[in-house]
Specification:
CATH architecture: 4-Layer Sandwich
Distance between the termini: 31 Å
Shape: globular
Largest sheet: 6 strands, mixed
CATH topology: Metallo-beta-lactamase, Chain A
Number of domains: 1
Helix content: 10-25%
Number of strands: 13
CATH superfamily: Ribonuclease Z/Hydroxyacylglutathione hydrolase-like
Radius of gyration: 15 Å
């Protein structure tokens, strides 16, 4: 699986394009559709995965809604379970705290999580925005601690990290 990052918008949101066998999934299409489209190239888009609906993560979503063959995965239409779309297998994990609709997409076979604004390198997403809740965040953190430590985390902003690094260096995960 190939993972490409497109940094979009004024808040430097990470949009991820996950490719396999000339197909792709788009994770959190920020606000720069032409930039995202360029990175997609000739790959067939199978789905768009939304970690949460804050404006900086869904700005270009409308550009993908016109194609009926593209499945949209967001909190309002997914269960906390495993999914297969094309050659991609992933699990949806509910992780409220930063936002009520915050979910994580976990690609177990590849050992990666796309966690939106849940965990950033050595910190977590803000809980003081509308829909945020610190108690929910703490429960979600306890849930995520049970996953393999070598899991790579792809956050909605900033650089990638690992669950192991966060368990050692993130005050919220200690």
């Amino acid at each position: 699986m190939q993972i490409e990052t497109v940094v979009t918008g004024a808040l430097d949101e990470n949009c991820y394009i996950v490719k396999k066998n000339n197909t792709c999934l788009i994770i959190d299409p920020g606000s720069d559709y032409p930039k995202i489209k360029e990175k997609i190239g000739d790959s067939k888009i199978l789905g768009v995965l939304i970690t949460h609906a804050h404006f900086d993560h869904v700005g270009a979503l409308r550009n993908f809604l016109t194609k009926r063959s593209i499945k949209i995965f967001k909190r309002s239409n997914v269960l906390e379970q495993a999914y297969t779309i094309g050659d991609f297998n992933f699990e949806v994990i509910y992780a409220p705290g930063h936002a009520k609709d915050q979910i994580i997409f976990y690609f177990k076979d590849e050992g990666v999580m796309f966690d939106g604004d849940f965990i950033f390198k050595e910190t977590v997403g803000r809980c003081d925005l509308p829909g945020g809740d610190l108690d929910d965040m703490m429960k979600s953190i306890e849930k995520i601690k049970t996953y393999p430590k070598e899991t790579t985390l792809y956050p909605g902003h900033g650089e990638t990290t690992t669950l192991e690094h966060e368990l050692k260096n993130n005050q919220y995960l200690k």
